[in-house]
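Same chain as my last thread, 72 residues:
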Amino acid sequence: MTGVTTGSPDGGLLGLLHPGWQAALAAFVLLVLILGGHRLVQRGPSRMGKSLLVIGGLIVALTVVGLLLSAR
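reply #2:
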């Protein structure tokens, strides 16, 4: 097929975004993490243990899914 260009495999969808939008998304994610962390600290140590366990599990799960999808 002539005239068909393929995108860079290492860029993905994030490579299609303008760098300004990438920075805006990163700032938004950082803000949400800060607000969530602040709220978690206010709830006290009894809930922080469970929350950190759940968050750690989610991070591991997302990492495994990302690795499995990138291996295809």
